[in-house]
Amino acid sequence: MRTFSLRCLLTACVFGLTWMLAAQSASAQIVPGTGTKVPEVGDDFEDGSWSFTFNEPKSSENINKQGNFPGGISVNGRWAESALRGQPDVIRRVATPEGGIPGSKASLVMRSLHTGVPGRLSFEQQQDDLLMVVSNRVGGYIPVQWNPSVVVRVFLPEWKYWEQRTGSSFAMRADLVGEKTEQRTSFFRRGSYTKSENYWPGMFICYNCAKDTPDKKDSAYILIRAGERGEDFNGPIITQTGWWTLGMSFTGDGRVHYYASPGVDDLTAKDYIASRYSYGYHANSFYTAFFNVVNKDDGRSWSTPWIIDDPMIYWRK
Fold it and tell me: CB of 86 within 8 A of CB of 131?
């Protein structure tokens, strides 16, 4: 009886400790969309005069060091081409698909055919970027102590409209600056030092094309980038298309928090996926959020048409 009671006590203590740690972890989260919207940042695309100015050729700095400035920019000044990679080939205001945010009449479609070096095919997976303009509108970066977060509604079309290629297709990512401690490897200089750099955590929507799966059924999943060692890891499986809500938040302890939910309702604590010191960095500054559109750069395969609505940034300063 005494042995049984001791075992029960130990089990209860372990359970209690596990629950307490989980509760502490959950309480440390900032649900994306919490706080107030950052003024003059983000978009609802309801303005009928919305348009994007393409300043071709687009950037391919990440491949051949050609920035091809000036970059593209939206007429309202809230969106810009990445200096690293070019903007999508199609950036256009469209009617909001069924099931979207109540009252929304317009959204934004992004799609690409040529994602590599302009005028040259790579026949490899490449991507284009569309950046939310943040620093120019708020006077600089947003400290993570202000608990910034980003939320977007994303429309996943029926499987038949996806680029028929297994792999990543779309992403929401953030541009952060963070610090981490590394060890010197030089024989003459030993010890540790603090390294500060930009890094780009995010959430990818990846396609499992039916022709490549054992059960011959289409599906997708959310891939999280990244863990502490820079590794990608899997999030929720997606078996039905339609609207999804994605969110990321950034807290004063330097972690990145990932959330996702089907539908267009506001995110809640139950939509939590994971928290990480992505790439081993402790974030200290948030600069912007951006979207990737990915395809096989073969001159024939259009990317999946990705539609987003109400991408917004929040803070709790």
Answer: no
Q: Is the pLDDT of residue 11 over 70?
A: no
CA 62, 153, 253, 288 torsion: positive or negative?
positive
Give every CB contact of residue 188 below 8 A, 6+ residues apart in sequence: none
The residue written with tokens 């593209």 in the block is: 72
CA distances from 155 to 96, 140, 243, 283 (A): 9, 31, 4, 29
Amino acid at 221: Y
User: Letter for the amino acid at 287?
Assistant: Y
ω into 70 cis (within 30 of 0) = yes
Number of H helices, E strands in the chain: 3, 19
Whether the pTM exceeds 0.85: the reply is: yes
Residue 140, classed as helix, strand or coil, is coil
The answer for residues whose C-beta is within 8 angstroms of residue 23's C-beta and 6 or more apart is none
Collect all residues with Cβ–Cβ distance below 8 Å to 34 and sequence separation of at least 6.
Answer: 147, 149, 249, 314, 316
Of 61, 84, 58, whose CA–CA distance to 71 is shortest? 58
Domains and CATH numbers, the chain: 31-315 (2.60.120)
pLDDT of residue 23: 38
Q: Please answer whether residues 223 and 168 qualify as being in contact, where contact means their C-beta atoms are separated by less than 8 angstroms.
A: yes
CA angle 14-15-18, nearest 5°? Answer: 85
| Per-residue model confidence as pLDDT tens digits over 34-82 | 999 999 999 999 999 999 999 999 999 999 998 988 999 999 999 999 9
Q: What does the alpha-carbon distance between residue 52 and residue 31 come to, in Å, rounded to a whole number?
A: 31
Where does the pLDDT of residue 4 fall: very low under 50, low under 70, confident under 90, or very high at 90 and above? Answer: very low
Residue 103, token pair as written in the block: 């009252």
Q: Which of 291, 289, 286, 248 is nearest to 130 (CA)?
A: 291
Nearest-angstrom CA–CA distance, 74 and 62:
22
pLDDT tens digits, 24-36: 444 467 999 999 9
- The mean pLDDT of 231-250, rounded to a whole number, is 97
Q: Report whether pLDDT(15) > 80.
A: no
